[in-house]
């Protein structure tokens, strides 16, 4: 068996994120979480570990790249605004999300379908939505807006965040349920689990004619607390005089922005793999996981995750091993393996290894999670090589006297030995050429 040759990781050409120091590994002298940082919270929903709090999301992802956004490829950075429209209207300097009328119509249809699921008839649904999404006049609300921001600042200083029951129109994971209390438009106001910033004054004082249409009704300060406001780009049947004004401001003659309330709010959460969640709980002690509002102990999590994912014990042992060696392991399902190993994190380097984890005895025999034939092994190796990675087998060797009762506790892997094996494709013609050069 030849000795493995280490190849340096491939750095990504474009990096848009900064590198923050990862979570510290706790020691017995430090306690569960050495630096006394905030302990994050997660909950189990449909056998998935979800983090909802924005501060916890930022902390977990920035300090070790744990999890991924449910609406993003990796970093949880989803925004409602459409980048093309934001760039188009950047001269207007409007600090509000900008979306197209087509996207806004999708939100209206989603809100309508949710209300129909509650048994409301079409007439009632259309009336509620018509009153809810009509254009808004935010002119003259600057003083009220600043007052609301002061209230938010005071709440943050006293560490008394405002909470309320979840709303299905802003929580994709919440249960669909409507309250009997409706706002003055006849439609339920969006709750303030994550209160948005109050909308700024829309009119640009530097321009005589504002391209943003502002109409009634005028909202009170109380209604600002529960809404997400968006600017919808719509077609405008403007006259000749208006068209000249639009030409001066270098905007499209036939388009305008209308301020409306978003009828279906979407928030991005952080989804942790089972291995990541257990590592944060067991190895770092910086996460608490709840199920039906009840916290789960380490043993309960080990048992629960083992039932949900049959090979969880094996993959977690490999995950824990590589994490402690400085790698950032991620799920390798898209390449047909158990793990992908990144240096520093996915934003900075491409994955170096695709890892297949196997739990075996001292003779390298065990219940294999996947039965490889020479054909399937060659296919997996070629797939891995085509994406500039190396295929690694991580054998977790357990002692012959280890019982199933010992395996029911995470303390078992303290007796586990690890053997790494890197698989390379041997090309005979290339081997002959190298020998001839020597």
In a nutshell, what does this entry contain?
By secondary structure, the protein is of the alpha/beta class. It has helices spanning 54-62, 83-88, 101-117, 122-132, 142-157, 221-224, 240-248, 274-284, 298-308, 312-324, 374-386, 404-407, 428-437, and strands spanning 40-45, 48-51, 68-69, 98-100, 212-213, 229-235, 255-261, 270-272, 287-291, 294-295, 327-331, 339-343, 353-360, 390-397, 417-423.
Keywords:
438 residues; 15 strands
Query: How would you sum up the major sheet?
Result: 6 strands, mixed
* Cα Rg: 28 Å
In terms of DSSP E residues, the strand content is 15-25%
Total number of strands: 15
Average pLDDT level: 76
- Name the helicity range: 25-40%
How many H/I helical runs?
13
Q: How would you classify the helix and strand content by structural class? A: alpha/beta
Shape: globular
- Give, in order, the helices and strands: EEHEHEHHHEHEHEEHEEHHEEEHEHEH
Low-pLDDT windows of residues: 140-220
**Termini gap:** 21 Å
Order of strands across the widest beta sheet?
A: 3-8-2-1-9-10
